[in-house]
Specification:
The chain has 358 residues and is an alpha/beta fold. The protein has 14 helices and 13 strands.
């Protein structure tokens, strides 16, 4: 069975707010190690039906942002990543990957400039966002012909790049299958298929334990849940909709995303919309600030806003102190740690059934 990749227009404000960081990276060099042969060629297909055949494991990889970078680090292919855009902020990556991730050269604090990407010397570009204007100035990314002329093969992450496109599935995303497929696909493309299977097996085990524990909770008894993206701003809340990765995380955790019915991945909303939904639980979704103290303060600030803002201070979740302190990165960005987010949310909103929460 051939792995498939699809692409599309990625989410706007909230995805970029959680995907980009303000630190990390640098100009450190990366040592590229030889890659064992085997398992090639691998063919992947995008949303438009265009096939890309990777004849051998890539030796020099560039990633569009921290999400695809973390996946490659988890797969053990991080030593072949020679650059990234939207670098992970300090403290964003798991501690076991942080040192290696910090050595990856930053080719763009936001999107990688077109000329720099084409001149990077990469043989593979892993694109989290898909076909869209590159962030930071509205310029468009390289065309497929330009990628080919530079000797760069271009592949996408299914779980994020296609979410906002007309060709995306209309039904809400309710499981982590797309993320798991991305991991398997990148494993096939980079020659790390065995490690990919190990990662996916671990994810399925963690999520499966939660699913079993919550099997007796009927749908109409699952609490309403709102992801408050504090870093996207407080003037106008951004709703996490049904096609977003977070909807799957919330669903698998035994909660009900109150904005699952909006047909998008993210959508600007209003506080009146949130008040009308009156969620049972609110996730204080903030980016890691680089230290426990600074991150804790960000959570405190997000909670204080909801308690003090006239429109939200009367919400059921606010009145009952039903807050989930869980970072944006593990909730709205596709990756191995989505399975950990499932468990943490489930243990917080269903503490009598699932252990190991906050």
């Amino acid at each position: 069975m051939r792995p498939r990749v699809v692409y599309g227009i990625a989410a706007a404000v909230a995805l970029f707010a959680t995907a980009c960081g303000s630190g990390g990276g640098g100009s450190a060099s990366v040592t590229v190690r030889p890659v064992p042969a085997g398992g090639f060629p691998v063919t992947v297909t995008d949303c438009a039906g265009k096939e890309t055949t990777v004849a051998k494991a890539p030796a020099r990889i560039v990633t569009s942002n921290a999400a695809s970078l973390e996946m490659l680090l988890q797969l053990g292919a991080g030593d072949r990543v020679i650059g990234t855009g939207f670098p992970p902020g300090k403290g964003t990556l798991p501690s076991a990957l942080a040192e290696q991730g910090a050595k990856v050269p930053v080719l763009g604090d936001k999107a990688i400039p077109k000329e720099k990407l084409l001149g990077s010397g990469a043989d593979l570009y892993v694109d989290t966002f898909g076909a869209m204007p590159m962030m930071g100035g509205g310029a468009t990314g390289p065309s497929e012909a330009e990628f080919a002329a530079a000797g760069i093969q271009h592949v996408f992450l299914l779980s994020t790049a296609c979410a906002g496109t007309p060709k995306a599935a209309k039904a809400p995303r309710t499981d982590l299958a797309g993320i798991e497929e991305d991991i398997r696909r990148l494993g096939a493309v980079t020659g790390t298929a065995a490690r990919a299977e190990e990662l996916v097996t671990g994810m399925e085990k963690r999520v499966g334990e939660v699913r079993t524990a919550l099997a007796g909770v009927p749908e109409d008894k699952r609490p309403g849940y709102f992801v408050f993206d504090f870093d996207a701003g407080t003037k106008q809340p951004v709703a996490v909709c049904g096609r977003q990765v977070a909807n799957a995380v919330i669903t698998q955790a035994g909660a009900r995303n109150v904005f699952a019915d909006c047909d998008a991945d993210f959508k600007p909303g209003s506080w009146e919309d949130v008040v009308a939904k009156n969620p049972d639980w609110i996730q204080l979704a903030v980016r890691n600030r680089g230290s426990e103290e600074a991150t804790r303060k960000a959570y405190d600030d997000a909670e204080a806003f909801l308690r003090g803002f006239p429109a939200t201070q009367g919400l059921k979740a606010v009145q009952e102190g039903h807050f989930v302190r869980l970072g944006s990165e593990v909730t709205t960005i596709a990756g191995v740690r989505n399975a950990d987010a499932v468990r943490q949310i489930a243990a917080t909103v269903h503490p009598e059934l699932v252990k190991g929460g906050q």
